[in-house]
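Tutorial, part two.
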Amino acid sequence: MLIRRAFDICVKKQHVFKSVVSSPHSTLSPFNLEGGGGAILKSLSTNVYENLAVEDWIHDNIDLQGKNILFLWRNSSAVVIGRHQNPWQECNLKLMREHGIQLARRRSGGGTVYHDMGNINMTFFTTKKKYDRMKNLNMITKSLNKLRPQMDVRPTERLDLLLNGHFKVSGTAAKLGRTNAYHHCTLLCNSDRALLSSVLKSPCQGLKSNATPSVPSPVKNLLEEDPTLDCGIIMDSIVTEYTKQYGLDHHIILIEPKDEATLPGISKMTQDLQTWEWVFGKTPKFSVSTSFKLGYRLSSAMVTLSIDVKNGIIDSCNIKLPQHWLPSEMCEHLASHLIGSKFCPSETTRLTSALLRTCPQNEELHHKWNILCENVASVM
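Running the prediction step on this input gives:
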């Protein structure tokens, strides 16, 4: 949906930000925040890459001096890793592919989180000098306490939110630029906890990395504590508290992340976040050393696999198998051709399929080769 109406910033003595939304389906253009005050924005998109791009666009393009912006957004199923994390270490990529769950790397640090429509994302934009994560978390807990006084939600020293002193309901991360900053956090309302638990559990064995690891925590949905709640009620309560804190009108500006007229350059920012080079290629270098058993008819053998990966590209590879099961030159041939390719199952499958044509014309060797290649690809 294109943005159809313009809005003005009315600056009064209290520096109050005002906007007029003509209908629930309209948005405001151009994105003009001159003067003091602030704004509450809500995305019309549920695409994780588009919403992450909006965060970065605001951070890079808006002068936040004297302004506070709250950006509310929800995503379809996605796993979002921190800027300095390793996706093979953090999540079950095979399961995510099977379920059509997107993987995104954000530009802030912190750990890995699962998003779906039962999770609320909030981004608090301020100048770097005004950046205060605990202030934001206290505002959220205050809004929840007003909504349900009996609900025990409190911030921790790690800047998470805990329910009943034990269950994590919010993860938090931040990006601090030269002059601007943003703090974003999740809020588990009614997420699929079974899927969350499954996709945030890596099956990768023997992985060694200096990437920032996530800290596992028990989680719980707010709706499990109080089924009368929903995402809409919770968001409205947060908006109410935010407007009181900063003296704003209770107006939510709906924004369309695809609209280049309002957000010039947003399309490229969205595309950049989806590239393999960003999502996987920005992974700090790591190694995988593992072994597994291969079987063909009545014969079996143990294979040892060692791979070094740099920028998502295989830097070195060593495959060892007993000579009697598969000739060593075939293993060396595979290992040498994997070097320089992406640490990626689909690329490995394409590569090995092409190499198969160069193998000796022997049915047993072909089957064993395929079994080896499938198992090597499964590590990725």
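The longest helix spans residues 231-246. In part three we will examine how such features are distributed along the chain.
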